[in-house]
Amino acid sequence: MQVVTAGEMAALDRKAIEQYCIPGIVLMENAGLQVVKVIVDLLDKQVNGKRVVIFAGKGNNGGDGFVIARHLHNLGAAVDVLLFADPAQISGDAAINLNIWLKMGQTIVRINDGNGKSPAELAVASADIMVDALYGTGFKGVVPEPAASFILLANNSGKPIVCVDIPSGVEADTGCVRGPCFKADHTVTFALPKLGLLLEPGSYYSGKLHIVDISLPAVLLKFRNYGRYLLRDELVSEWLPRRFTGAHKGDCGRVLILAGSRGMTGAACLTAQAAIRSGAGLVTLGVPEGLHDIMEIKLTEVMTVPLPETDRKTLSLEALDQIKALLDRSDVLALGPGLTVHPETVALVQKVLEDLKIPAVIDADGLNALAGQTGILSRIKAPVVLTPHPVEMARLLSITAGEVLSDRLGSVQKLVEAGGCIVLLKGSRTLITDGEEIYINATGNPGMATGGSGDVLTGVIAALLAQGLSPLRAAAAGAFVHGRAGDLALADKGVMGLIAGDFLDCLPGALNMILEGEI
Ligand SMILES: NC(=O)C1=CN([C@@H]2O[C@H](COP(=O)(O)OP(=O)(O)OC[C@H]3O[C@@H](n4cnc5c(N)ncnc54)[C@H](O)[C@@H]3O)[C@@H](O)[C@H]2O)[C@H](O)CC1
Ligand SMILES: [K+]
């Protein structure tokens, strides 16, 4: 599913109206009705007598609010419309719907009645549910008073909040929030997701995102390629490999993993198990020789190879020739989990990458070995996927983590340009890009912020690479599958108790769910 900016969405609206002759008022009616559907479900279809407060603004987002008010009123709800604009400012389809609301004998609740009391505050206090139709995709900057104070009042009320199209306070193109902003329980967005709903902190404020149809012609939604996609089951399912009956393990890819050090055997194991669990035919794990016996005990389906080590039981430069021989018998390399940044291990990582001939996914200490040295990356001849979290991204770009977090999109683009590789930037909405197309992943949950989570992701991506997915798709699909496995594990283990091994075990279930389309 494509992800659009406010301008791109407005252009699609205009095309629907001008080229397909769909009156704007029809789109507004459909938009309002879709929000009403979500609200009715939230109220367990018990709408009669429920108190609903609708914060309405002066634009078409407010117009959606008047449509919502009308339908909820007709369903028996007690609806208070708080208008944060002069009615004279309201025009077009929004004015038509405000007029219908007033013609029905309904009123607008005044923000204050001039003698200190605020009917609006009373309305908020007695609401069962609140609807944010204040600002939509036309918003930029900071919400002015008195709306700003009411947003804080609503957020602190403990009542459910449903935001229309986008939470008021979030900028549609960047996800930036520069002042008070509704913290939505649900956001109902129209036709296509806006970029700001999928970028931090906009994605945080959006709560559960509902992407609903408002009858824009399907051909119009595919009309242009914006190069931004929200990962969905149907797309990832198309990418995942199907195994033919005569397949043997050699057909399913051979993954070489270089990982682990004293005290970090778990990272190596999780990566290796994730790779074999994600369909790789053969997985070989190269580890410092002093840890080899432990790995033999911890792993069964994965082959292990003892390699020369430093005095600190990390991989040493002497391992280079053996690694080159292993690489000649592999389709994909996964490099980094638990390696440490021992100077000799760092030098080994750089040497391995310098004459790399097969695709690789580089994570953790593999990335740290390249801190500030993106020049090495640009000289690598084989395709490479980098999977940094914001701190590793900051080290690679020699900037601060804060700068990465304040512009995630910009920092991934910068690293792609500097390194000529595929970049996956981890976060609650993981971004994956080759500089041309960008995929946004919305699967996963906060329970996955646990040691070893990234190691599992590295193994999944390596396995998908080894099974023939392009580096961009392997990274994007890997993020989607990894997050889906975490969501399956969450149901059973809960957000605090979840550990990386739990979602490792859920990888087969996640893959089946996506492959078989059971959602
Ligand atoms: N996607 C669709 O097909 C449909 C979307 N609909 C709704 O229309 C809004 C977009 O409407 P628009 O009038 O362009 O913008 P807003 O409603 O967001 O109005 C914003 C309004 O406020 C002004 N403004 C912006 N920033 C500030 C600020 N910081 N302080 C004060 N005022 C500000 C701005 O100038 C505008 O006038 C979309 O989100 C949907 O909800 C259609 O209803 C149906 C089809
Ligand atoms: K809104």
Task: Provide the descriptors you would attach to this structure in a database record.
binds ligand LP7C6HRI; ten-stranded mixed β-sheet; potassium; Rossmann fold; UDP-N-acetylmuramoyl-L-alanine:D-glutamate ligase; binds potassium ion; alpha/beta; 519 residues
The CATH architecture of the largest domain can be given as 3-Layer(aba) Sandwich
What is the residue-averaged pLDDT?
A: 94
- Indicate the structural class: alpha/beta
Tell me how many strands there are: 16
The backbone outline, from C-alpha atoms, is elongated
Specify the CATH homologous superfamily of the largest domain: YjeF N-terminal domain
- Ions and ligands: ligand LP7C6HRI, potassium ion
Could you please say which CATH topology of the largest domain applies here?
Rossmann fold
Low-pLDDT windows of residues: none
Tell me the distance between the termini: 16 Å
**Assembly level:** single chain
Strand order of the largest sheet: 7-16-15-14-13-12-11-8-9-10
Largest sheet: 10 strands, mixed
Percent of sequence in beta strands:
5-15%
* Number of helical segments with 4 or more residues: 22
Percent helix, as a range, is 40-55%
